[in-house]
């Protein structure tokens, strides 16, 4: 029998345990994402520093609420990347996803807040 769990009721620790995940501090992890990157201007560095400062300030003073993270971190980063300007992107919000652990008979259902397909 398959058990379905709501993703919103799981912590990061729960997912790390169930999927045997671990934080990687390895500089070469996903190194292909760092290849052929354009230089970042001083204005862009300042904007990134602001996002980081806002995140740190927010995380120290209140619970990490999803909508607050979207406003303070995600939206400014997507704007800096000109994400909203690409006419080839098909953007969908609140897309349901399901992750299955076949050998343990568990399913985790949740939502991806922003899905983009090119």
Description:
This protein is of the alpha+beta class and 118 residues long. It has one domain. Helices cover 36% and strands 24% of the residues. It contains 3 helices and 3 strands. The protein has helices at residues 12-19, 42-61, 66-80; strands spanning 3-6, 90-101, 106-117. The protein has a 3-stranded mixed beta sheet, with no helix packed on it. Strand 2 and strand 3 form a beta hairpin. The longest helix has 20 residues, at 42-61.
Describe the structure in brief.
The chain has 118 residues and is α+β, with helices and mostly antiparallel strands. The protein is 36% helix and 24% strand.
Summarize the topology.
Elements: E1 3-6, H1 12-19, H2 42-61, H3 66-80, E2 90-101, E3 106-117
Parallel strand pairs: 1-3
Antiparallel strand pairs: 2-3
Helix pairs in contact: 2-3
State the main characteristics.
118 residues, three-stranded mixed β-sheet, alpha+beta
